[in-house]
């Protein structure tokens, strides 16, 4: 096994005002940072305001460097990662358009890297995650089976200020530990494979 540091990116998949996603993103980011041999970074899509994808060439076939400066920065962050945790709400039975756009601007930089999810909302964000797993497969990623699902009845009181986010996350400590261990195991294995 390699002793190289693993580079794990936690991606905040919502950009709307008043979003809840930065709370679980900050929580899971801190949990990842506790692990030895891991360099964790929080990526906020607000910091990467990419236009909606309208390029003449698919990133799967592009031969030249990306032209848009924000896309270059975003692609660079994805390229340096060994694994991802996507934090996503569920909007109308799916995930946010801004998150799909962030996936669509990149192709080869996602490939052969594990991804898992922290989701919330109706049905615990499960429908959002299920759709994201399909996208990950198309991008030749390795979507993990385990994910953190926070049901609406637990999240909405926190959003409304009637409950404490810390209590919500404390109850998820054990599944988060399992999730992170699985992600890091896959990240090590796939990093070795990419380095061969």
Describe this structure in a few short sentences.
With 196 residues, the chain is of the alpha/beta class. It contains seven helices and six strands, in the order βαβαβαβαββααα.
Written account of the structure:
The protein is an alpha/beta fold and 196 residues long. It has one domain: Rossmann fold (3-Layer(aba) Sandwich), CATH 3.40.50. Helix content is 42%, strand content 18%. The protein is built from 7 helices and 6 strands, in the order βαβαβαβαββααα. It has helices spanning 22-33, 69-80, 97-104, 126-138, 152-159, 165-170, 173-195, and strands at 6-12, 38-44, 83-89, 114-121, 142-143, 148-151. Strands 1, 2, 3, 4, 5 and 6 form a 6-stranded parallel sheet that branches. The longest helix has 23 residues, at 173-195. It is globular and about 50 Å long. 36% of the residues are buried. It comes from Candidatus Lloydbacteria bacterium CG22_combo_CG10-13_8_21_14_all_47_15. It holds the Pfam family FMN_red. InterPro entries: Flavoprotein-like_sf, FMN_Rdtase-like_dom, NAD(P)H-dep_reductase. Residues 7-147 form the NADPH-dependent FMN reductase-like domain. This is Nadph-dependent fmn reductase.
């Amino acid at each position: 096994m390699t002793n190289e540091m693993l580079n794990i990116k936690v991606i905040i998949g919502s950009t709307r005002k008043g979003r809840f996603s930065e709370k679980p993103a900050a929580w899971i980011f801190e949990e990842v940072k506790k692990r030895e041999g891991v360099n964790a970074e929080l990526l906020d899509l607000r910091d990467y305001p990419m236009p909606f994808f309208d390029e003449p060439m698919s990133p799967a076939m592009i031969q030249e460097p990306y032209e848009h400066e924000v896309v270059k920065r975003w692609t660079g962050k994805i390229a340096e990662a060994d694994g991802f945790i996507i934090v996503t709400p569920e909007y109308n039975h799916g995930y946010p358009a801004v998150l799909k756009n962030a996936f669509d601007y990149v192709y080869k930089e996602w490939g052969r890297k594990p991804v898992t999810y922290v989701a919330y909302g109706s049905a615990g964000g499960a429908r959002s995650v299920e759709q994201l797993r399909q996208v990950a497969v198309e991008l030749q990623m390795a979507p993990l089976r385990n994910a953190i699902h926070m049901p609406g009845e637990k999240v909405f009181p926190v959003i409304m200020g009637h409950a404490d986010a810390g209590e919500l996350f404390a109850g998820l400590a054990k599944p988060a530990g399992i999730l992170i261990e699985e992600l890091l195991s896959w990240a090590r294995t796939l990093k070795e494979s990419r380095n061969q």
